[in-house]
Amino acid sequence: MRHTSSTLGLLARALAMAVAVMADTTYRSRPDLSPPHLNITIPCDSRCASGYLFVSPFTTYGEPDDRVSYQVAPYIIDSAGDLVWSGFGYFAGWTGNLQAARYQGQDVLFSFEGLHNGNHGHGHGHHTLLDSHYSVVKVLRAGGHHVSDKHEFAITDAATALFQIYEPVQRDLSAWGGDDAQTWIVDARFQELDIATGEVVFEWSSLDHVSPDESALALPRGLAGTGRSSATAWDYFHINSVIKGADGHYLLSARHASTVFKINGTDGSVIWRLGGNHSDFTLGDGVRFGFQHHARYVDESPGSEVVSLFDNSVYGSESAGDGNEVRVNPYSRGKYIRLDHTAKTATLVRALEPPAVAVPGLAQGDPPILTKSQGSLQTLPDGAGDFVNWGSEGQITEYDAAGTPVFHAFLGRGFLRDKLQNYRAFRFNWTGYSPEEPAVFAEQSSSSSSSSGEGTVRLFVSWNGDTVAKSWRFSWAEETAVVDAAGTAKTTTVWKDKVVARRGFETSTRIYRPEEVRIVSAKAEALDADGRVLGVSAAVAVQAALTRTINSKGDVDVVGQERLGFAGEL
Ligand SMILES: *[C@@H]1O[C@H](CO)[C@@H](O)[C@H](O)[C@H]1NC(C)=O
Ligand SMILES: *[C@@H]1O[C@H](CO)[C@@H](O)[C@H](O)[C@H]1NC(C)=O
Ligand SMILES: *[C@@H]1O[C@H](CO)[C@@H](O)[C@H](O)[C@H]1NC(C)=O
Ligand SMILES: *[C@@H]1O[C@H](CO)[C@@H](O)[C@H](O)[C@H]1NC(C)=O
Question: Into how many domains does the chain fold?
Answer without folding.
Answer: 2
